[in-house]
Amino acid sequence: MISRRQFIKSTAVAGLAIGLNGKCTSEKNAIPSLPSEGDPQFWSALRAQFPMPPGEAYCNTGTIGAPPTRVLNRMIDHMRKHAVEIAHCDWSDGGIDLLSGYFPYVELREKIGRLINAHYKEIVLTQNATMGMNFLANGLDLPEGAEVITTDKEHSGGRSGWQLRAKRYGTTWRQVPISVPVEDPEQIIDAFKQAIGPKTRVLSLPHITSGTGTILPVKEICRHAAEKGLFTIVDGAQAVGHIPVDVKDIGCDAYYASPHKWLLAPAGSGLLYIREELIDAVWTTLASGQWDNHEDNGFRLTQRGTGNAALLAGLEEALDFHFEVGPDRIHRRIKRLGDSFREGLVAIPKTSILTSLHSEMSSGLTTFNVAEMDGKALQDTLWEKGRLQPRSQGARGVRFSTHIYNSPAEIDKALAIVADLAQRI
Length: 425
Ligand SMILES: Cc1ncc(COP(=O)(O)O)c(C=O)c1O
Description:
By secondary structure, this protein is an alpha/beta fold. The chain has helices at residues 4-12, 40-47, 69-85, 106-116, 129-139, 156-169, 185-195, 218-227, 247-250, 276-279, 297-302, 309-325, 327-346, 375-386, 408-424, and strands at residues 16-18, 24-26, 57-58, 100-101, 123-126, 147-151, 172-176, 200-206, 231-235, 254-257, 270-274, 305-306, 351-353, 365-370, 388-389, 391-392, 398-401. It has 15 helices and 17 strands. A seven-stranded mixed beta sheet has the order 5-11-10-9-8-6-7, sandwiched between helices. It has a four-stranded antiparallel beta sheet with strand order 13-14-17-16, with helices on one face. The chain has a two-stranded antiparallel sheet with strand order 1-2. It is globular and about 65 Å long.
């Protein structure tokens, strides 16, 4: 019989796994040890750690990340092992971790805590950013007539929970306008300062806006809000795994994210942080046996019944990969590629860039257009001519993401296609 702890260990240290191509691949020691990140060989060796065929450039991490092969293998191994050995499982002590939603996953939550600088008891496992946001909109006690302030650039996953609450309970919500493009962080800080009124109780804003990839000055806004005694929530769906995130430094009360984007975790991975002093007061939306466990509030809010534990194994593998490559190195690479793409676009006539060109307000996302093309047509042209896959933003053009699996050569190729379009249209 396999106990829960033995099962977790045996899947975590499996040295060999069957790769996509059917060959045995080593799950560990995957990070190439080359002299420096400035060496292009380092990045091409790292690119080989992804199952995407060479010659295809994935430029849509803003929607969902491309998981490394070892993340994929870890999930597949986990599911296969469960399917093969299911009759050997000892359920007498509550079962192995295969039920996912019933166990505290302390080690995993500690790793997430290490990533964003929080204690594991402040970390809730969710399925995505949308779930984190809804847990907050549903779970906070607010006085009658309370006002929630968001921006007018929220993703529906950052906004709809507040709209629901407004319709159901009469909480009001207001949207602070964010200009496009933003020229200066002060613009945004001032807009929030002006928007806060006597009834405001909550600020809820994105760390990086979904549509244009603009990094908002969340630290300054949270500091100001804290002076006014407001509850501050940051939507980090586009930030975790992309730019450095330190929730204590930001000073927010809650932070939620979708590690299946920039952290390259499997789809269906989510995290929610709530500050230790405040988490006790947040009601759980999904109640199961731990619903009133105020000893480990993160577990109380995590518990959600049976799920797929292979996803959590994949999330853990993605965290290990991220730490091994190095969060700072990843951010520098993403930012350098994004900056060089924007610099190239600025020099091409007929292009418009909706992402902020302020160096502190942009990184791996660039929303742009050329000669007011339809976004789908621009997306299709980039694919047909260069095997580059960004995401259409309709009339606003396309959103182009750069991650560690992208290269300077892909940036050059995209710029050449855009320059050619600008000439011909
Ligand atoms: C800023 C922002 N918030 C929330 C979401 C919703 O993410 P998910 O679908 O993973 O819940 C997204 C998705 O793109 C986003 O960009």
